[in-house]
Predict the 3D structure of the following.
Amino acid sequence: MRTTTRIGITITASVLAAVALAGCSGNGDSTATKTPTASPTVATATGGVADDTGACVDGVSTPIKSKAEFSIDSCDFVDVMGTGNTITAGKLEKLTVEGDGNTITVKSVKEVTTSGKDNTIYYSGSEPTHHEVGSGTTLAPVSSKK
């Protein structure tokens, strides 16, 4: 085989490979640029912004202040990190209590996880599923609240 023929075959194969790879690397619009999208702010493994106000961000409230009163409405998930708080919450999907000595009243909640100790949680509606990792948590219906 002549050198010019081999060079021609090599160049042709290279061009075809480059064209094939270019077709795999995008949506076909070589002028399109992708703008990065912001991901939700995450402070804990479950998300949310840990702060002193208990504000609900992206469906998550993570109050870290201690010995305070919070009223949290319209939030799917609440993760209480502070201690000695009095918290009133609306309808929740999940409540996690990492702090100690909190008193929490929820309109309704499906699942409660407590890793702190000596917390009291009052609920309306059906009794939630409770996973206790800590100790001394009292889970009771609102009707038993004194």
Summary: The chain has a mean pLDDT of 78.
